[in-house]
Design brief:
252 residues, 2 domains, four-stranded antiparallel β-sheet, 6 helices, 8 strands, 12% strand
């Protein structure tokens, strides 16, 4: 008959520790005015999230180590992987994926500036940027591009015929870059062009109206994008009052 050679005090200490842990796990808020130190809802939610991802990271490292060492059986020249190294490789790959996702988000914001808003932990397209703009006609959109043309041509007249290389270099209010009916969306601007050299798109609408895009070209014309027939080709010194009639094909 086997006997337990462990000291009785050790067994009793282990039982006390187990009872203490059980009491801590099952602890409830104190009643009858007794003090109780607890976390706030926000702190508890953050602690839950941190513990969840920490446990997920540890489990992923263990799974990676198991898969690697299983592969070693078939490929003998591969080294055995310890859990510490598996954890390091898992963290490294996680950081690399985070960088890639950040670059994708940055590219998305550059391609659609101001069109995204944060909702919780994710982003979605703003309703103001996707909803149809009420009361914005084709003539209003052409007029907006022609007004921008006046600003750009005025800038070029003060800078030896050079157009702004970027929106930030334009010496006029930011509202002239806005698309009609969409206060959060600017025209797509292609700087570095010269006036009249060749007809290349200079400022282009984002396709937010459902009936195609219009663009201002470097020769001063406003036409559909892509397109070949000029809609208007007013002189650089044209006045705003004459532009709507020219855009509609009327003579001033």
């Amino acid at each position: 008959m086997e006997t337990d050679d462990r000291p009785q005090g050790t067994t009793r200490a282990g039982a006390i520790v187990l009872v203490g842990l059980a009491a801590l796990v099952s602890a409830e808020p104190a009643a009858a005015g007794m003090p109780s130190i607890t976390l706030t809802d926000v702190a508890r939610a953050r602690l839950d999230a941190i513990s969840f991802f920490a446990m997920g990271l540890l489990l992923a490292a263990g799974a990676f180590r198991w898969l690697w060492n299983s592969l070693v059986r078939d490929v003998p020249w591969l080294p055995q992987l310890s859990y510490r190294r598996a954890l390091g490789w898992t963290v490294l790959w996680g950081l690399l994926f985070l960088i890639v996702l950040t670059m994708i988000s940055g590219a998305r914001e550059l391609l659609t500036p101001g069109a995204w808003e944060k909702v919780g932990f994710t982003y979605r397209v703003k309703e103001s940027a996707t909803a149809p703009a009420p009361g914005v006609s084709k003539e209003d959109r052409i007029r907006g591009l022609e007004t921008l043309r006046l600003m750009l041509w005025s800038h070029a007249a003060r800078h030896e015929g050079r157009l702004p290389a970027s929106k930030e270099e334009g010496e006029f209010a930011a509202e002239f870059w806005r698309q009609p009916g969409h206060s959060a969306v600017d025209y797509l601007y292609r700087g570095g062009l010269e006036i009249g050299k060749e007809a290349r798109p200079l400022a282009i609408e984002y396709d937010l109206y459902g009936d195609g895009q219009w663009a201002l070209y470097s020769d001063g014309t406003v036409r559909p994008f892509p397109g070949v027939e000029p809609v208007s080709a007013a002189a650089p010194d044209a006045t705003p009052a004459s532009q709507p009639r020219e855009a509609q094909g009327e003579q001033p």
